[in-house]
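Troubleshooting entry. Yesterday's outputs looked truncated, so today I'm pasting the complete records for two proteins to confirm everything comes through intact. If either block looks cut off, that's the bug. Protein one:
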Amino acid sequence: MLHQGDAVEFLAKLPPESIDCVVTDPAYESLEKHRAKGTTTRLKHSDASSNDWFSIFPNSRFPELFAQLYRVMARNSHLYFYCDSETMFIAKPLGEAAGFKFWKPIVWDKQRIGMGYHYRSRCEFILFFERGKRKLNSLGTPDILDGADSPVINAARVLRGYPTEKPVSVSRVLIEQSTQPGEWVCDPFMGSGSVGEAAVVAGRKFAGNDLSAKSLEITKGRLISDDELGRIGF
């Protein structure tokens, strides 16, 4: 199931407790600050927003986002929320206020440093929230995802891809930790559809949304090329 529109409005249309896991990467506000200082200069400028690829989702909307996420997620389920070190301190208490239990930040080691200033960033955080109580499928997975503990994980930063694109293999680890085959995975900020690809390759069903028509086009093409169109509801 793929949809184009506002993330919160998309979630509001889903039935209560219908999603088994959420893996998502909102276009958080601090991306604008980093871009202004030259750390994400590859994002193309437009008059409508800071770039031609996606619109920034303001921090002020996090409360309504977390409220809808809590509503649509199953009673025993996991939420994975990609963010940077600045947004982490904003998102964590708001997720908890919505009813989620926060466990810890998982570190994604990108293998390569990015552009920047001060200490150059080589990692990103994935906030691990829980609704209810659900056991992970494996207790042997570390909280640093860098590929060192599994030869099948390519955790390196995606180069020359969609802006802020995440590796399929990293999202697949999260999905396979927190769901069973046939369960629903959702990404309301799907971008180029890497979480969707991870979900369908792992045998899960996928519900994805993005505000960008380009995102929808890329995601459809990506999943069609993987011969997964029928498995996502088209």
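Protein two, checking that the full record survives here as well:
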Amino acid sequence: MRVVLHKHFQKRLQKLPRSIQRAYKIRRNLFLKDPLNPMLENHPLQGKYNGFRSISITGDFRVLYDPVNHELAHFILIGTHSELYG
């Protein structure tokens, strides 16, 4: 699996606390090895994010991504559950 970051995703990630950035890197590495690992809580989204998927970074932080194909994921958004879905 390969991951490409949206430019807004990169900017948002840089503004997050270091602890969240570290958690993101751990989960990203897990995603690269096994996108469906149960720890990621990977699931499809509906509504305005129909066609996208979400993975869990911490208890509250999520990454929304576009599964381009079986080898490429485009990470679009990162934020808390309420920021993304509220």
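Both blocks look complete. Sanity check on protein two: The longest strand covers residues 61-69.
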